[in-house]
Each structure stands twice: as C-alpha cells, then as structure tokens.
Amino acid sequence: xxxxxxxxxxxxxxxxxxxxxxxxxxxxxxxxxxxxxxxxxxxxxxxxxxxxxxxxxxxxxxxxxxxxxxxxxxxxxxxxxxxxxxxxxxxxxxxxxxxxxxxxxxxxxxxxxxxxxxxxxxxxxxxxxxxxxxxxxxxxxxxxxxxxxxxxxxxxxxxxxxxxxxxxxxxxxxxxxxxxxxxxxxxxxxxxxxxxxxxxxxxxxxxxxxxxxxxxxxxxx
Length: 221
Hints:
Layout: H1 3-19, H2 21-37, H3 50-62, H4 69-94, H5 97-100, H6 105-121, H7 123-128, H8 133-145, H9 150-177, H10 182-220
C-alpha cells in the first residue's frame, strides 16, 4: 500500500474510533466538498481525492458493523456533485479573478493546463477531470467562466461525481472486506489511475501538436 494511503488509513481508523460513524461520514464528505468548493484540493489533493475515498472504503470494509458503504459512497457522490456546482457558480459569478487571486506560479500553470484541457474535451472534461487532481479543482470554475450552460455542466458533473465518488469508495471497501476480490480491486484502482494519466498525456500531446501547428503561422506574420 502507498505510504500516504497507509498513513491516511490509520488516521481515519483512529478518527472513527474516537468520534463514531456520524462524524466520520461528515468528515469524509466535508473533505470531498472542500476539495473544490473551498479550493483545498490545491494544497492537499491526497486528502480530498482518490486516496481519501479509497482509504474510507477500506475503513468501511473493516468496520462494516459501524459504517454503511452505501451511505458513505452515495454521500461522497453528493458531496462531490455539490462541490463542483459551487466551483461552477464561482466561475460564472466572479470570472477569471476567482482563479487569479489564488496566486503562485504552480497555480497559474495548473489553471493554464486546465483551460487547455477544457478546450480539448468540453463536456467530457468535467467527467474525466474528476480523476485528475488539478482537474477536480479548476475545471468547474473554468467551465463557469467559459459560460458552459448550467444543464450541460450539471449533467456532466452528475456523471463524473458519482462515477468517481462511488466507484473508488466501493473499490476500497471490497479491497478490505473480500479477500477473493482484493487483487481485482487493486487492479481496478490501478486502471482508474492509468486512465487519468492517459487522459492527461493525451491532453498534453494534443496541446503540444496545436502549438507546433501554430508556430509557422506566428513566424510568418
């Protein structure tokens, strides 16, 4: 198990033992919501993203008497959906300054990367972006800034939030609770990560190809 995930798993186990299931649910859902809605994912993506969900699912699998995996997973999907809706509203209401004021060279590079990703994939960028750390944080406000229709964004957000939130949490649950599918669960988790990497590489290559294609035009002007 990855060191970050192992440490997070232990911390969540201790937290569950000290506060009980209700506050455990609220803490996990709150962190997922804060990832985009409060831009916390910019600073600590591992604590608001895939690692959190997988570790929470593992806890649900080892404490099934106290934690319902379906309450946890569906709550994660709702929190993810709500957080992206807030991010979209930020972008629609306040425009580019809502991102510019985040400051820092890394943030500016991530915003530029996300803008190109959004231009390439449109509706699908909202779905795919859920599996990419910087995509989770910046695509919703960028979609709002770009004036994507509310219905179009909401449908993409609904698909992405629940596909991401429910799937990764449930995969973590089966990795802990069912030894017969444990290996398969880790394989599926690896595939999810691989898909996010492929999507990011594809976006980079398409963007690079576009830059190369425009360079001769720029030089000839």
